[in-house]
């Protein structure tokens, strides 16, 4: 069968910002590349970025980080599956010794499991250095299978992935147990700045967040999600920095929270499933390498530091776009007027 030539699919890209980030992962102003066909996204994120520069900045906190792969094993019955699982849970050092043979960077940090009938779903959780870790954790799991089947002959192979991971699907498990970086971005915007730059008030933003993001998403049947358009910023950022774009599915599951504090606006975006990396698949393209370099994410640092920096910048970008859109939607006609002006 003849192999088709690899071609490039050009997507419009523009740098937006700078965005002011005030710690704890980094403290500086950063311009971010966004690749998108939705051109109004650039000025929208840009408006949020300008607001950030006029405040103390966006604080980005990384709460947790891990990449997962769930393997699926079978036993004759649930009793045998439980006996095997009870033993496996007490042998994490043995499991890590096998994992170490697969990679210098993969480290098994936790396991979670579900038994359904005679089926054993084992969710393996790893740190993966600066890589997003998809291939690294699958390779580690692949090395673990022969060891598990030798040590526990009552178990049989079913699948290298049992969907309990859960990769590129909107599930509850990722938000509860973690997959990727769990990042929280926060900003406090003085009332005067909110009124002058965002053309709204803190009270209107808080009210709309409750009625649109929280209640609206609830009646729509959203799953661990309460935001206006995380996916827009994530996709544009992912395409510009060489990420696996399909991970916006779980990445867009996140929550916006807003409060009025002493008359000012506290605004935050929680992204519990942010999957990014600075090395690995997708990073070999010249424009990707240049974008990562300009973001300061190709420096010589301890393993994982570059990817944490990238995750913080990504979360700040999401906040800028989310803030700008919510502010626009507090005013009748503003959203559509902007799209007509910028897209036609």
The SS-based structural class is alpha+beta
CATH superfamily of the largest domain: 3-hydroxy-3-methylglutaryl-coenzyme A Reductase, Chain A, domain 2
Look at the structure and give the mean pLDDT. 94
Beta-strand content bin:
25-35%
- Kindly provide the name of the CATH class of the largest domain: Alpha Beta
Q: Unreliable stretches, pLDDT < 50, 5 or more residues?
A: none
> What is the CA-CA span between the terminal residues?
44 Å
Tell me which CATH architecture of the largest domain applies here: Alpha-Beta Complex
Helix and strand run: EEHEHHEEHEHEHHHHEEHHH
What is the number of helical segments per DSSP (H or I, 4+ residues)? 12
The profile of the biggest β sheet is: 9 strands, mixed
CATH topology of the largest domain: 3-hydroxy-3-methylglutaryl-coenzyme A Reductase, Chain A, domain 2
**Number of beta-strand segments:** 9
How many separate domains?
2
Provide the helix percentage.
40-55%
Q: Give me the Rg, rounded.
A: 22 Å
What gross morphology would you assign? globular
Architecture blueprint of SSEs:
Layout (H helix, E strand, L loop, with lengths): L12 E12 L2 E9 L5 H13 L4 E17 L3 H12 L2 H9 L6 E10 L2 E9 L6 H18 L4 E4 L13 H5 L2 E10 L1 H7 L4 H19 L9 H11 L7 H4 L3 E7 L2 E11 L11 H9 L10 H25 L4 H10 L1
Parallel strand pairs: 1-3
Antiparallel strand pairs: 1-2, 3-5, 3-6, 3-7, 4-5, 7-9, 8-9
Helix pairs in contact: 1-11, 3-4, 8-11
């Amino acid at each position: 069968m003849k192999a088709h030539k690899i071609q490039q699919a050009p997507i419009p890209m523009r740098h937006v910002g700078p965005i002011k980030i005030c710690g704890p992962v980094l403290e500086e102003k950063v311009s971010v590349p966004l690749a998108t066909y939705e051109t109004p996204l650039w000025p929208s994120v840009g408006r949020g970025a300008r607001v950030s520069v006029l405040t103390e900045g966006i604080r980005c906190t990384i709460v947790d980080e891990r990449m997962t792969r769930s393997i699926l094993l079978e036993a004759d019955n649930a009793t045998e599956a439980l006996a095997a699982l009870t033993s496996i849970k007490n042998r994490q050092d043995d499991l890590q010794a096998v994992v170490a043979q697969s990679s210098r960077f993969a480290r098994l940090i936790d396991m979670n499991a579900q038994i359904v009938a005679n089926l054993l779903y084992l969710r393996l959780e790893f740190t993966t250095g600066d890589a997003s870790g998809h291939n690294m954790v699958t390779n580690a799991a692949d090395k673990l299978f022969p060891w598990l089947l030798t040590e526990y002959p009552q178990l049989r192979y079913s699948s290298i992935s049992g969907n309990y991971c859960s990769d590129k699907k909107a599930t509850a498990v990722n938000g509860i147990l973690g997959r990727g970086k769990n990042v929280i971005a926060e900003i406090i915007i003085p009332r005067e700045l909110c009124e002058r730059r965002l053309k709204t008030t803190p009270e209107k933003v808080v009210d709309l967040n409750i009625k649109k993001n929280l209640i609206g998403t609830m009646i729509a049947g959203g799953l661990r999600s309460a935001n206006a358009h995380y996916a827009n910023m994530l996709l544009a950022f992912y395409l510009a920095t060489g990420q696996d774009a399909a991970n916006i599915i779980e990445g867009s599951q996140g929550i916006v929270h807003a409060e009025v504090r002493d008359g000012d606006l506290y605004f935050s975006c929680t992204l519990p499933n942010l999957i990014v990396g600075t090395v690995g698949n997708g990073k070999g393209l010249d424009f990707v390498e240049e974008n990562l370099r300009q973001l300061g994410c190709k420096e010589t640092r301890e393993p994982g530091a570059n990817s944490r920096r990238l995750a913080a910048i990504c979360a700040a970008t999401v906040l800028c776009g989310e803030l700008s859109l919510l502010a626009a939607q507090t005013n009748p006609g503003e959203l559509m007027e902007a799209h007509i002006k910028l897209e036609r």
